[in-house]
Protein 1
Amino acid sequence: MPHKLLFVGDVVLQSSPVLSQDLQALIREQDICCCNVEAPLSGFGAAVKKTGPLINQLAQSAEWLQDFGFNMFAMANNHILDYGAEGLAHTRQAFGANVIGAGSEEEAYALLVKEVEGVRYGFVAYGENGFGALNGDRDYGHAWVNSTRVDEDLIAYKDQVDILIVQVHAGVEMVDVPIPEWRQRYRELIDRGADMVIAHHPHVVQGHETYRGKRIFYSLGNFYFDGISKTTAWNTGGALQLVVDRKQIVQADLFLVSKQGNRLSLMPRMETEQQLARLNEKLQHTAAYENYVDQIAVEQWLQHHRNYYAKPFNGLVQYSLKALAKHIKRLLFHRNIDYDLLWHNMEIESNFWIVRRAIQKLRKKQ
């Protein structure tokens, strides 16, 4: 009998989800069903010092997700350590033994093996660098995809299993294509032994492609993420079903899921196929794709990142009355250099790469 595996993106439950009957049926028919637990459970730990929002989710989330049928939980992401080691440890405990990508270094980088009717499946999860990454700054957090150990780990892990699935939490948020630097890194993961790479973090769905006969899904977007945005893109996610027969992935079907309030429903197949075709088309033509990414990089620099680089030093890049008032306030009351924000700008790969790309483009215009 073929096996079925389902992967969905980011989950932060601040309300009790209601799943449509067809979505419930889809989850129930899976042998393995995995989601990205994007934030620790509330009630434990203290907020850490970091740049960006601090997020947790309802204590009942672990019970709800397991009741729905999820039986594997990726935790390699940029919010899982928002409430420190205590918050993460409690969250790991609540989800049981089927956690990948976070904890101590041994736990975070470990291979989780599941055997189904004689087929050995291996699972690992990584995230890009961040305040919770195991990058040498801490001994408890999430596995870092660019750690020096990752490539050797994957080569060794592939020898232990029939199918190796790698999940990665990385990318530029709210952008519908992966940047070239992540495309290259995910291909390297295939080269090291991954049979499929499944990614999330941008909070929107991105396209997929085949590399050396193996699939890379660049972002499943959000599955159920409360409290940040109410846009259609934010509330549209991917549910990726793999079918495995005779130790080979023979089918990969991406369903789109729509969140309206607290209700999750599968989107109509025709609408799903149209949306996915548009996303995949953006990856096909190299010159057009590169130009599109460069345009996004410049837009993000002008809208966000130049302010991020000026703010740590109380700099000013906009001369509106509101900006001047904020600048004066910072000069009077916040004179220290914000090293956390500088680290956020320069050490998180997506931020660094998108800024470098923007600067390269803008220099050519001078």
Protein 2
Amino acid sequence: MNSNKEKYSKLIKTEAKRLGFLSCGISKAGFLEEEAPRLEYWLNQNFQGEMSFMEEYFDKRLDPTLLVEGSKSVISLLLNYYPPQEQIKDSYKISKYAYGKDYHNVIKKKVKKLLNYIKAEIGDVYGRAFVDFAPVMDKAWAAKSGLGWIGKNSNLLTQQVGSFYFIAELIVDLDLEYDHPTTNHCGSCTACIDACPTQAIVAPYVVDGSKCISYFTIELQDNLPQEMKDKLDDWMFGCDVCQDVCPWNKFSKAHSEPLFSPYPELLSYTKKDWEEITQETFDKVFTNSPLKRTKLSGLKRNIDFLKPI
């Protein structure tokens, strides 16, 4: 039986690589004991702000066997999104993950292809693919599977390629060979904590989501709080500061996923271009872009807030 576990695990990892995933790690599905008190503390501190979805499915969030019936293994997958080029300097800034097509669709298709491959090669396997939206603690599972460690900015970090990648999971009812966590390599570095424009990293490994620039510019429905004026560092959609300053991201390499290729306009737009963008242009240029999430009205709100008084 063990030889089968090993064989199937190798098969899955080889196919994941062929599909373009950066890496693949496997963990035994079960209750995330260490994460439970952390999540409870985080929610009790109201670090989720208006992201009430974080309060839902508490039990399922911590235990995939409640989410996928009969599940035995969590297959964690990383997909690189580090762009080959960045925006021009005189512009309102957009998080690098949003340069190309919406990642949810891109990754889900790849994960489903992997599931279909598993079924074709191994047999009657039941599983579900998860990308970001579901109550799955993707960073915790990726760390448990040895794909990296959770850094002080609460992102998954790896020595080889830093942190500019998406995380997805495939939860299956198949016994596999399990990987082990890696060691933490943050050491005494506090670059991310020191650089955060809004002091959202309130302690090493603890981020107050309700103070994060990504939260203000994407999740927050209300007006942006006045005390954040001049603190958003020209970010109009998301924020990469804590990743940009991380020494491990010196090892980031450009992705090879055509669908993540930057919209040319996005890279060349000046602040003036963004201020004058029309609904028609927005709809045409940013079809299937993560920017659709805030709609043009949300971007305009952010831009107006960023303009000097």
